[in-house]
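Run 26S proteasome non-ATPase regulatory subunit 12 homolog A through structure prediction, thanks.
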Amino acid sequence: MEGDGKLEAQIEALLNVEKQMRQAGDVAGTRKAATDILQLCFEARAWTILNEQIVLLSKRRGQLKQAVQAMVQQAMQYIDQTPDLETKIELIKTLNNVSAGKIYVEIERARLIKKLAKIKEDQKLIDDAADLMQEVAVETFGAMAKTEKIAFILEQVRLCLDRKDYVRAQILSRKINPKVFEADPSKEKKKPKEGENVVEEPAPDIPSLLELKRIYYELMIRYYFHSNDYLEICRCYKAIYEIPSVKQDPERWIPVLRKICWYLVLSPHDPMQSSLHNATLEDKNLSEIPHFRLLLKQLITMEVIQWTSLWNTFKDEFENEKNMLGGSLGDKAAEDLRLRVIEHNILVVSKYYSRITLKRLADLLCLSIQDAEKHLSEMVVSKALVAKIDRPVGIVCFQPGKDSNDILNSWAFNLEKLLDLVEKSCHQIHKETMVHKAATIRA
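Sure, done. The structure for 26S proteasome non-ATPase regulatory subunit 12 homolog A is below.
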């Protein structure tokens, strides 16, 4: 009791000093008096009084911004030294309420909410943690360091993925432009011009830009894995593969390159996939995993692939992915791989045949006639190739249809060719007639 009375007397004396300094407009004096009050409460371990004084000082009439900012920053240092979780949460909530709506402590508020969200997550309250993080739009904070902004948004994306809120995860991920990871940090450090906001140093626990790049693409892999977007997953692994720290360590890049190869062959055929396929085949590192060079080579060579033979060759490698970095390829992966092989075979057939019977096509694909027709129809619908099926006759025609302009142009060309032949024929007849007349005259 005697200690409490002494503390209250000291606080009262400092409050009077703070009032005098505040009314005199002395920024340094007001800030010193306010932080001294908080220091007294902390040293006395009077956590309830500390919370009360923070609220009281922040609400005093005409309170200076610098004093509020100094109080919030100082009190944040006490958070990790609280005796129990309940006291820690109470202090964070007090500081959060004090800093709400104040631009000059927006960075501190973002860090406080991140701490509170981490506590909620540790308590298995993922939804509450995600809701808390989404309250803050750090992309509008001019004074926050770029790396800290990215780290905060990535934390928002991760919590949305944890709660399986894929729509919001995609919206949040679009706040980060992937080009930002290619910037050279050494060239960006410029002295601020007069009147510009000074960018604060990031918090000590914020990773480097290249580490944030890896985290970003790993989160995007989780997002695209949900919708089985194999090509985008492949591009994400490609971006991780290009990080210098990954590319210099074989133990790190070999599992990533394996994933690139697998997701390339699982991706539907299109120009982007074809470009990545060729670029990966030219990678010298692929010689370290020759099995995968063979796999990529098979799916780019214009020859029909026997599915049974391919699966027997690569089944062990496929199963082994479960133990590699990034985990297994998913439940549908084996089924989708077979589908890609069928699509590859149909493209090969369309290259070598202009017309083929459905029965012969089914034999080449090792499928029933119904399944062959089904897969062919799906590829036509997706515009992967042009084909027409004459079902009564059972013939597939791979010749592309012509539009009206092409037909008219072909008619015009044929007509021009015909007139040219008629003109040449007339010229030859006229020539023969003249030769015949000359011969008759001489005779």
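The chain has a mean pLDDT of 85.
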